[in-house]
Amino acid sequence: MKTNHQKILSLEELIEKIKNSISLSAEAEKYLYSIIKKKTVLKGDILIHQGQVVKHTYFVIDGCLRAYCIDKNGKEHTLQFAVKDWWISDFIAIYNNELATLTVECIKEATCLEFKTKDLDGIYALFPEFEAFQRRNLERHVVSLHKRILNQLQLTAAERYNLFLLQYPDIEHFTPNYYIASYLGITQQSLSRIRAEKVQK
Fold it and tell me: Any signal peptide, and if so, which residues (predicted)?
């Protein structure tokens, strides 16, 4: 059973992260504590289903979540892995007021901070300083996605795999091969070949 003390300790990580980015008043900090829910997510749990209304955004304290979509042929495409200090949700659905285009699932037991999207929207009117913090989060997310697109266009599969290992050094220990292959845009056979060639070097 999670105690209130444990909850405060986990929230403090995010609070300190925010304080390092913006000046945070005592009132704003109190409000943050009131809208955040700590959530333990088990491996295999689904937080967002493709096709549903998206009501929450998640900040990862530990563990790993994955966002993916399924195309009309039933093939999975992994868009994002979210590890410590990353946010994850279906932002297209949130900002375009659409149904979810992604599914978000837990692939390693995780501790997350859960926010209702309506609470996050309301925080800007109460505490405008949060707009700068959230803008930086969105900038970080957009930059990450743009880099990934450029990597897909410009780099070989082996180069993309090497960059993946730098970004997620431990993820191979708990992630199925086909998740990684779908993230890299290659087949599992190609991934196995790249790994074999890497070992031989």
Answer: none
Give the per-residue pLDDT at 178: 93
Q: What pTM, to 2 d.p., does this model score? A: 0.84
Residue 71 domain flag: yes
Q: What is the mean pLDDT of the chain?
A: 87
Report which of 54, 46, 148 is spatially closest to residue 96, judged by C-alpha positions: 54
Task: Tell me 114's DSSP state.
Answer: E
Decide if 89 contacts 57 (C-beta within 8 A).
yes
Q: What is the pLDDT of residues 157-169, one digit of tens each?
A: 999 999 999 999 8
Residue 5 has pLDDT above 50, yes or no: no
CATH of the domain at 12: 2.60.120.10
Closest to 63 (Cα-Cα) out of 80, 84, 78: 84
Number of structural domains (the chain) is 1
User: What is the Cα–Cα distance from 29 to 51, expressed in whole angstroms?
Assistant: 34
pLDDT digits (tens, 9 = 90+) for 130-161: 877 778 877 887 888 889 899 999 999 999 99
SS3 state at 112: strand
Task: Tell me, letter by letter, the H, E, C secondary structure of 77-106.
Answer: EEEEEECCCCEECCHHHHHHCCCCCCEEEE
Token readout for 51 is 């096709």
